Structures are given as C-alpha cells and as structure tokens.
C-alpha cells in the first residue's frame, strides 16, 4: 500500500530537525470510522483501511516500525470494535500509539465512555476529534476549512504518534 496521495495542509505537518516528516499508519476499528479522512489530514500517512482479524501468516496490521493510530467513532458499538481492534493489534506484538475517537456531534454514550476508559491503559494516548460539519460536504478533506479545535486534534494525534515512534529513519518522507 502507498500513502494516500494528497497535498499536505500547511501548518498541520511540522518537519523534524532533519527536514523529514515521519509517517503514521492510520487504521480503522470499523468501517465508517473516518480513517481515510484522518489519513488525508495526517499526511504523510498510510491509510490501511480497517483492522482485519489476524490469521496464521496474516497479521491484523503491518506497521513496520511506524506508529499506529487506531480510528473509531464515539458510539458504544464502535468502542466495542475498538477494543477488539486493540486486541488484534496487540496479539501480533504491535501497539497502538493513538486511539483517535471521532465525534458524531452528539454526546458519548455512557457505555462508550466506560469502554474508552478501559482502553486508555492499553494505548499510549487517546485524542478526541470533534465533529466537523465542513468535512461532510468536502470532496477533498485536505481542502476543508477546519476549526481550531480540529486542527489541534490533528496536531495532537501526530505529536502523540511520533512520541511513540520507534521506527528507523527510512520511515520518513523528505
């Protein structure tokens, strides 16, 4: 798989001291989580679709040293799928750097809040992404007008993921 080809949003991606930008693996806990949208906004990022059930010889996710961001919605069912996804990723010896919880614009159900609290001990960071109405109408998420809270969430995902990164320098984009 190749990184999702888009233009990076100015101000959201900050190169490291060597001028390179670290890549992030973005994977969804379930369909419709917002994985592709976040991958576009987190460029350079690898959009890996949804977590697959691991099988002999086929891991759930192949990060190859890149930090993993797991994306989920903020519903009770989505929180359950996020738990299963963390289990699948952990089973293969990988870890989730960031659990990105994407809001649907409504308050989180109590069951979801509880499940996310339990997951907090199993992931390096949790970042909540606010509902962004402009993304619903945008053909290209990279061109959508993001509110400050959304820009902060995107920057927070990148910062937390890279804080957990342990991959070699070859995992960068010049």
Structure overview:
The protein is of the alpha/beta class. It has a single domain (21-53, 63-169), classed as Rossmann fold (3-Layer(aba) Sandwich), CATH 3.40.50. Helix content is 32%, strand content 19%.
Question: Which features characterize this protein?
Answer:
single chain; 174 residues; alpha/beta; Rossmann fold; five-stranded parallel beta sheet; two-stranded antiparallel ribbon; 7 strands; 32% helix; disordered C terminus
Could you write a compact summary of the structure shown?
The chain has five helices and seven strands. It is an alpha/beta fold and 174 residues long. The protein has a single domain, classed as Rossmann fold, CATH 3.40.50.
């Amino acid at each position: 798989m190749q990184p999702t080809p888009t233009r990076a949003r100015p101000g959201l991606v900050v190169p490291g001291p060597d001028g390179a930008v670290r890549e992030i693996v973005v994977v969804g806990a379930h369909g419709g989580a917002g994985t592709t949208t976040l991958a576009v906004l987190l460029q350079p990022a690898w959009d890996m679709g949804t977590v697959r059930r691991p099988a002999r010889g086929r891991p759930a996710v192949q990060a190859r040293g890149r930090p993993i961001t797991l994306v989920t919605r903020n519903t009770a069912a989505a929180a359950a799928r996020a738990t299963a996804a963390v289990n699948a990723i952990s089973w293969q010896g990988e870890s989730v750097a960031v659990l990105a919880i994407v809001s649907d614009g409504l308050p989180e159900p109590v069951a979801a809040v509880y499940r996310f609290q339990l997951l907090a001990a199993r992931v390096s960071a949790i970042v909540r992404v606010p509902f962004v109405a402009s993304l619903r109408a945008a053909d290209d998420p990279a061109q959508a007008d993001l509110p400050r809270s959304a820009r902060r969430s995107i920057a927070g995902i990148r910062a937390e993921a890279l804080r957990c990164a342990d991959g070699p320098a070859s995992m960068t984009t010049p």
